[in-house]
Description:
alpha+beta; Neuraminidase; 2 domains; four-stranded antiparallel beta sheet; 6 helices
Amino acid sequence: MSATIIVFFTEIILARVSRWNYPSLCLVSKRFHSLLSSMQFYKTRSQIGAKETCAYVCLNFRSSPCPSWFSLFTKPNQTLTEHRGEIRFPKDPSGNSVVPTPFSSSHSHHTTCQSNFSIGSEIYISGGPWEEPSSSVQIFDCRSHTWRNGPNMTVAREDACARFRNEKIYVMGGCDIDEYSASWIEVFDMTSQSWTAFPGPGADEAELRNLLHGGYDYNIVNVSQGKLYVNIDEKEYTYELKDGTWKVVRQQSSSLLKSERCNFYMK
């Protein structure tokens, strides 16, 4: 039997093993480690329908210019619990296993936690990281651990805010408000696979523009009935997509506005 056939059958067998066991299997040999970390191996799992619930965690470390991604698995004899609509892991710290996720080097430098969001079994990354603006949209398939490119945005953005709601992707900021005022916000329609640009705060909204020029954190916190709910400084604004108007709806504690540097995805 040729070495190629042996590797093929080994891959098929290991693909049926729970991914929670991968850290132990990687210790068997360097060849096992290489196989279990390869993109092709995850394609094989996807092809044979091997599905397991796991979480993906994106972390920014000061020692590294690029975010690091990990998969978080639970032991086979433990189950996830649901509390107020949120899925949680068991409190026992020994019940989980953290495994680095293989990302191809051609995409790793594009990842940025703030502009990541999940849709179904896929993770979308819009734009580029800080000081590396890009109009690209990259999509990571959690089933096969493979990448593909989505339709580009109309504006190159860096560390932009993004949110998915009702089959649409909303992206805000990450570009100069003066230069790109007419397209400071973009909305991607999943059905038509097209981007539509919307203006940011106009000249008559001087206070809001000053906050954005001042480098205050901002984030899309919700989308409802044609409105974007946006946190800027210590206020919550609504943005009407229909007519492009901004309104202050609530004052709130600045402690809630700190930018999160860790994203957590359940798949």
